[in-house]
Here is the input.
Amino acid sequence: MCVKIRTSTEAKMSTEPTWCARGCYTYDRHMADCEGVDWHTPACVDAACVGCNDQRCDGCQPRETAGGNLCETCCRVLGSLLAGPDETTNGRPVESITYVTRWLAEQLHNPIRCNLGKSGRGNGENDAFVRVFAALTDLQIAWAELAVDFLGGVDARPVTDRNPAAISARLRPFARQLCAWEPIADTIVHLIELRDTAHAVAPWRGKNPDAADEVAAVLFLAPAETTQEICKRFGVNEQWVWQRRHRGLLAPEHDHTNPLRWKPWDVYKLIEPAAAKRHEARLATLDDRIVYVTGQAAA
Here is the structure.
């Protein structure tokens, strides 16, 4: 389950404030000597202006720690990183290390997403298989290194199973101690960077791949693109496109144009059929409602 790290306003042993080690600031709260608190420039005379000072500070008051070296927000981030692979929040998967690594591992066995040849091996440094494998390896190593360094530092029983899920389960009981661990701030930053890299190997999936309605909506309306643009967008190669065309699974917008152009939605339906089907079902429901209210089908 997602770890809720109890914040410690009542547990602080000192009245002196301490600041979040990640350098977090509080929005719209400023230090006493901040000179960027005005919403308007001195020359502004527009009574309807809602804010014109480009140099205004968004907030420079550091966030106080709520647990160890981290503020309350960072404690929640750490808790989400420690969560299990099936944890959800508001129906969406928690972006835990176990969730992301499991998803990456699944991609290595999907020949459409990872663009594998018949040999099952990547064919170059830019091959999707290589990028997915590198993202998975980097996350696994970073997660294992965190466990080794932290557990060794507190003289706790070391991790014997290097599977990310096993590491998360081993670390969850130490969540509050992790907040006070000196390297935790830089470690969280590094893990978030690696997690972002993992999502970048399949950019069409969006931040929450299993609930990326906004991604599907954009692709559904996107104009046709050249073969090169399609390959770049979806991480496939030209051979993949030609093979799908030969099998009758994919057709260009117009057969006799040069260069050929393909609708991103048609490609998306081949790569993410379940997500595409859900989106089309929602559109069909919307069409039914429009007909019921207006008597006319949607354009």
Summary: The mean pLDDT is 78. The longest strand covers residues 25-26.
